[in-house]
Design brief:
This protein is an alpha+beta fold. It has two helices and five strands.
Amino acid sequence: MPNLYFCQPHAQNQGMLRAVISTADCKRLIGSGVAKYVGDQFPAVGGAEDKAQDFAVLGFSPAEAQGEWQAGYYCFEADLMELNAQLLTLTR
């Protein structure tokens, strides 16, 4: 199952594992946003920390890659508080 990480550059958070979710839930969590494939290495969190926005990362192992999801990492901008609330609904 894919891993979901929360990244907060302003807090110097390099990526914290937040959840392990199903591939079906990945699309639901991204919603109308676009997940950009960034390759097989976890994206670097850096730059101007005071201006960088929070974002989320989905990680797929080669065994989990299927359909539109290839092995590696996908970034998408997200309100992490809202995304966390959505995660809580998945467990119910």
